[in-house]
Design a protein that fits this description.
Radius of gyration: 31 Å
Number of helices: 2
Strand order of the largest sheet: 1-3-2
Order of helices and strands: HEHEE
Shape: rod-shaped
Structural class: alpha+beta
Distance between the termini: 71 Å
Largest sheet: 3 strands, antiparallel
Helix content: 40-55%
Strand content: 25-35%
Number of strands: 3
């Protein structure tokens, strides 16, 4: 009779262990999709030219767009002018 109880307890412990492993697996599978980080996509993009010698005008434009919620993304420079790129997220 004692052997039967020991075997029954071992089986119960095994079932609880398997149930715990399944529970943890299910939780981890659902939280992976929740924790995925997606890159932000810009809602709006503005591109304007800057002529060499008009630095104050360019600074004023950048400040105006920054106040409107735009972020400086980058610039492309040539010999005579530069292209300024700003994005709003």
């Amino acid at each position: 009779m004692e052997n039967k109880n020991k075997n029954l307890n071992k089986m119960k412990n095994l079932i609880y262990f398997i149930a715990g492993v399944l529970f943890i697996t299910l939780i981890s599978a659902t939280t992976v999709s929740v924790m995925t980080i997606k890159p932000a996509t810009p809602k709006s993009t503005i591109v304007f030219y800057k002529n060499w010698g008009d630095e104050q005008e360019t600074i004023t434009k950048i400040q105006q767009y920054t106040k409107a919620g735009y972020v400086y993304k980058g610039s492309i420079e040539t010999d005579t002018r530069a292209i300024i790129i700003m994005e709003k997220y």
